[in-house]
Design a protein that fits this description.
mainly alpha, NADP, sexual differentiation, 3-oxo-5-alpha-steroid 4-dehydrogenase (NADP+) activity, single chain, endoplasmic reticulum, 3-oxo-5alpha-steroid 4-dehydrogenase (NADP(+)), 255 residues, 64% helix
Length: 255
């Protein structure tokens, strides 16, 4: 039984990588249907705050339920505990804090919400089940350069992501409407600083966990957020004649 589930977790990780590449192709063709890009003709749309909170919640609830309902054999080891905590910290912020800081926010199409909810359930199970039941690390893993570098990248990415979201929320003063060019922080160098932070965060997590499951999540995140960043970059250049020409899309000094 354990061998079968371990095989399943590896298969799900490879599938997540494949889905990431598929999403990249599809989103390049049809765009990311959310926020400013969502069609006003969508028949079913959900309030932004509620949609964000509920769609992200499985990545927090599924790991907690999985650990509560079955003996978490590997969580008696510090590396496993810390890695799972890293995952949960991100989604505690995304599900319990971020949605309630949204100012306004355009309604989310129902199909976008369902897809996000399904992914968070899928990935929440994948990461938490692997770390709580099967991941085996050496006694000195917490001092291994891969873990230390990965942890620093994870923390740096998390802070960049939170700060960039703060910048975006405060673009408009009370009573103002319309769009503005983001200024400050990494937005001075790239269009999608918030996405860059999240990519760095999950690449750090993947490095620290040194697992197929962690790298699958990082690959999926990069593929999906890169298409959104490219869409944002093009939109800003079309919307604002004075948009800084030197700004890259998502990776400072590269693209």
């Amino acid at each position: 039984m354990e061998l079968a589930e371990r095989f399943l977790l590896d298969a799900l990780a490879y599938l997540e990588c494949a889905l990431g590449f598929l999403c990249y192709v599809l989103l390049k063709l049809v765009g990311s249907p959310y926020g400013r890009y969502a069609s006003p003709r969508s028949a079913f749309r959900l309030p932004a705050r509620a949609a964000w909170a509920v769609q992200e919640l499985p990545s927090l609830a599924v790991p907690l339920l999985a650990c509560a309902c079955a003996p978490a054999e590997r969580l008696n080891r510090w590396p496993n505990c810390i890695l799972l905590t890293m995952f949960l910290v991100h989604y505690a912020q995304r599900a319990l804090i971020f949605p309630f800081l949204i100012r306004g926010g355009k309604p989310m199409p129902l199909y976008t919400f369902i897809l996000a909810f399904m992914f968070c359930t899928y990935n929440g199970y994948l990461q938490s089940r692997y770390l709580s039941q099967y991941a085996v690390y050496a006694d000195n893993w917490l001092t291994d350069p891969r873990f230390l570098t990965g942890f620093v990248l994870w923390l740096l990415g998390l802070l960049i992501n939170i700060h960039s979201d703060h910048v975006l929320r405060n673009l408009r003063k009370p009573g103002e409407t319309g769009y503005k060019i983001p200024r400050g922080g990494l937005f001075e160098y790239i269009t999608a600083a918030n996405y860059f932070g999240e990519v760095v965060e999950w690449c750090g997590f993947a490095l620290a966990s040194w697992s197929i499951q962690g790298w699958a999540f990082a690959v999926f995140t990069f593929c999906v957020l890169l298409t959104r960043a490219q869409q944002h970059h093009q939109w800003y250049h079309e919307k604002f004649e004075d948009y800084p020409k030197f700004r890259k899309i998502m990776i400072p000094f590269l693209f």
